[in-house]
Amino acid sequence: MSDRSSTRPILMFDSGVGGLTVLREARVLMPDRRFVYVADDAAFPYGAWEEPALEGHILALFGKLLDRLQPAISVIACNTASTLVIDALREKFPGHPFVGTVPAIKPAAERTRSGLVSVLATPGTVKRQYTRDLISKWAQKCHVRLVGSDRLAGLAETYMREGFVDEEAVRAEIAPCFIERDGQRTDIVVLACTHYPFLANRMRKTAPWPVDWIDPAEAIARRAMSLLESVGELSGESEPDIAVFTSGKVDFATRRLIQGFGLTAR
Q1: Which of 78, 152, 199, 257 is catalytic?
Q2: DSSP string computed for 20-42
Q3: How many CA atoms lie within 13 Å of 204's alpha carbon, on the beta-carbon side?
Q4: Are the CB atoms for 31 and 232 separated by under 8 Å?
């Protein structure tokens, strides 16, 4: 075994703390790996950015992150960032493996019985051509409703830090996902933002009828694991997993949250 201090970490990247859903699954699959979680909270929420500016921001940020942290692979645990910039990241850093996060439209199309699927995402993910291409490729026989929420990511951030959320606000945000058509009802909702699974229990509670909520976190973690195996790096002895916040500011609630995920703020 190599010493873990010499083992390059897995970089988990998100605009906020939503990517912790992916980190949680990755830890189950790769308990001996070292992780660095990067929250670009200085730029949160990404939905408020114009696309060219956001793309330039993320590319420049990754130039610094890869140089500083030297990760083995990077997981873009953010649908908004992945659908916008994953191809540009791979082009700019061709020697570095990236795992993207895209809406789980293919498994939803395979699993639906009613043929009515909703994709609950940020407005940025909803308007991307990338998302529409996934629907055209994998879900031609389904009716797919794209629902862009302006508020859910922020509600999830508040819930994760403070432990409470306005359930009526959650109800209002998810309501457009539920449609009835030709005697059928929506039976699957794709959670196309890594923040959203943290609100899954509230969504189930406020939904008008039961549906299958698809969380892609495990699939993303499995993809990362398969790439690591191809890289062939070993794990070793313990070194702390860290969290980096681009704002440089970590309040008490956030520090407590990340400690619960086994991370130390740096």
Answers
A1: 78
A2: HHHHHHHHHH-TTS-EEEEE-GG
A3: 7
A4: no
Q: Is 78 a catalytic residue?
A: yes
Which of 58, 193, 203, 263 is catalytic? The answer is 193
For the chain, percent of residues with pLDDT exceeding 70 = 94
Q: What is the pTM of this model?
A: 0.87
The CATH number of residue 115's host domain is 3.40.50.1860
The CA-based angle 50-178-23, given to 5 degrees, is 55
Residue 201 domain boundaries = 105-215
Rounded CA separation 48/175 (Å): 23
54 and 137 part of one domain = no
Q: Are 122 and 193 in contact (CB under 8 A)?
A: yes
173 & 86 share domain: no
